[in-house]
Amino acid sequence: MNSELDYKKIIDLIDFKFCIPSYQRGYRWDDNNIIKFIEDIYDDKASLIKKILANNSLNKKLEKVKEDFKNDIEYCIQPLIVKKENETWNIIDGQQRLTTIFIMIAVLNSYETDISGEFKLSISYKSRAMSKEFLEFLLKMTKINDSTSIWEKFKEAKGEIEKNIDFDYMENAFHTIDKCFKNYLKQNKIEENKESFSCLLFILLYFCKFIWYPIDSDDKDEREQFAKINMGKIELTDAELIKAEFMNPNNYCDENINQVKIRQTIISESWYAIETELHKPDFWAFIPHENQYEENDKYKTRIDILFHFVLLENWIEKNKDKGIDEYINENGMKFNEEHFLFYEIKKWIDEEEKNKNLNKNEIIEACWERIVDIFQNLKELYEDDGRELEWKINNSNNNSRKKYTNEQGLYNLIGFLIYSYNSQKDNKKFITGKENNVDKSITKALKIYYEIHNILKEERCNRINIIKQKINNLVFSINVNREKESIQSIIKKMEYEGLYGDKIAIVLLLYNIILVNKSTGIGNRYNFLQHAKENWSKEHIFPQVAKEFINDKNERKEVLKVLIKGVRNKVIVIKSSPLLNYINYKYDKVYSPIDGLKNKGIIELNEKIVDDFLKEKNEVDVQSGNIENMYRMEYAKSLYLIKKSQEILEMYDILEENQVCFDENLLRDKMGKSNNDNKMNYIFKYKDVIIDYDKDILISNLLESEINKADHKIYIYLINKKMKDFFEMLSAKMGIIKNEKYERINIKIEEYYEYILNIEIENSDLFKQNKSEKAGQIIEEIKQIIKEVYDDKIKEITIYDIDIKNKIYKLIVEYKDLDEIKKVIDSDKFPELKISNTIDEIIKKMDNNNSNSKFLDLVIKISSDTIKKKIDDFFKYEYLELLNDNSMGNMTLLDAKTNGDSKIGNKPYNIKKERIYSKMKKGVFIPLSTMLVFTDLYTKSMGIKIHWLPESRVEYLNDMVNTICDFFGEKVNKR
């Protein structure tokens, strides 16, 4: 159905073809229905008839007559609900009234009136074809009397036909209407003649109109519509019933006809204008109502909600000591009663008429003025977006400019209140899903309007502060002790699925609203309708579960450099460290939670402090909700991350020198010569680090990857004799180390080999058991021997300091004797050299033989592989875990669909920002604060442009806190 009321006069329907569908019963109106209908139409028309007759008006041209009496009141009939099918209109509702109108025309036409003519109005019946012919027969009737049997005349004209029940009701209606017209003329002392019947027909055709309700062709099955109408589900809306009451001429009985017409026209036109405005989606989304952000019910009248507001205001005026909750409790289930609104308005009009001795038309006008006032007030708020203030600021003197600058547009703030009230549930938690952000009940809409009504009662200069206080109470009221906790403290404590987690989305929306309110240059109206259509995710800017990690070496090093900012000579300057500064900012701390260093502003980054603090962190009960515990836990995690980042950077240094050891050109450029001394120097320099990294790596590479398998597949492997090949390879590799332990390894390997071959193949369980016991024991013995060999060899090689060797070579070149050379040799460090008997023996001992060279290559290669793996593992696992952050500094708003996009969700910051910008260009709704996050506003260095690191998080969180606190006038703690 159309959303706007349309009307059709009876004269407009004269050429129409109507059809009564088969699912409807036939014509069934009795005498009472007919008489009441005629009385309603002609109730106040006697004076008009007499005027027409006195002026002999109907002898003039019809157009002139219509012009002369155009200001007279028309009668509005209840809706005629129709659906067009080809050139015919199917009657969904209104059959009884339309058929009665047809028979009234037939009766008046039978008197051969001055305006009788060829009426082409046609009503057919799907299941009763002869009913159409019977009606057409009535239209041609002349000179009838009460005793005339129309049925007999019809049968005589048509021959033998079967009678249906419609004929009886139609014939009865014809005679009843005839009597009713004659009685009407007699009661009003109007002579019964052709002219008077002509006047009756003229009024019926030109002063009587249907409310015209066509149903679109793509609407639901008309049978379903018919069923709903007749079950009382979608008859007239309350607004339509109220309008009919307002338009009822009986309510203007003491008024001059022309004045009544003018008043009706004014109400009708402004009604239409208001209904039109309410059908604009953005404005309708601003008006509190049951389906706040839904755009369905497009055919439903929307002005109804304003009448609800009028009733609420009336009640408040009468009950000044009560509030909205009492009003809702008092009406309770009444809101769900059919036509509650219409009956309450009618009741109010009747009570006003009785108690205040007012005419109905005065009460109706007063009611309508209230509706217009409510509408205009809401419209004013809707249009109050700050643009007028901007104009005032730009066109005012300095004193006025200062005053206007402190004002703000109310649209976004009222819109935020409406959205927040709708998305807050009874448990005070906020729900961001679109299926949950609309309360379907009228009570929520009334509560929201009650708040707006109270705001509107205040002077404009006070409204902004009142709205801010309401927003503050709505969003940041946590508990009875709220007065002890500041807004900034609450924002900083918010945790995803943790403390205040349900408020994150609403606070982020508020942050957006405040930003938009200030951003006149980019449009300062927030799109609440579009916002409400989406399911919003509290998006982790640095991904909670990353599907990609940094692979590029240069990018990794840039990130690591950012993470160790503030570290100087194994000491962390807290305020210079982005990691520690971010944590201290979140928890409003200054220095460190580590005992003994609270007031120094520095932390010694040594193993003991970090390890002790990590141990304490692991014992912290974060589930208790204790803020101090959470602070210590995060601090410990950050200290570990700083220490780890330093280590990874050192690993990159080792890898670079490692590369030099195998690149002859680099060796010559960097060290001047190529020999084993350079490799030994590398191992000597990083001896502690390499041994720490690689303690088990030789074993893992040579033994575990082949022998220590998880299941009995190794048995098949051994049976295929591959085990023997492996042992030979292991022996060959270990053969580069020529000492007594080599034979022990061979013995153990052979022992293991023989033992495995004797295990029964059929008994896999026995295999697993034996493997885990005897075989496992042998494996451990082999590993221990290799460990000893490895450590001994490293010690053997690295015992010779390059500086000492260079001094000895210099003395040899200078032809110094053996005693002078021995003086520079420390007997504790180099006993083998000290006991040498000749210079040649010293030289021989210092030279690395071929086996040592191979071992050096093996150690360097293994250490390189190990370090690379450790770096990869760090960025794949620890890095992501240690930087994971559930606080507001890592949260932004993103719609679920965009966030769920595989190209965006769980991607690094630098990838996200490119793809989110692309989404925005394609028309996806991206909130302003989200766009600012992904446009490098808070990033300064290369490392944080790649990933969203604490240096960016603290800037972002600080901006959010400052923006929101400034809005509420709360002083912010200095960083």
Automatic annotation (TrEMBL):
Pfam families: GmrSD_N. It comes from the Bacteria. Residues 10-247 form the GmrSD restriction endonucleases N-terminal domain. This is DUF262 domain-containing protein.
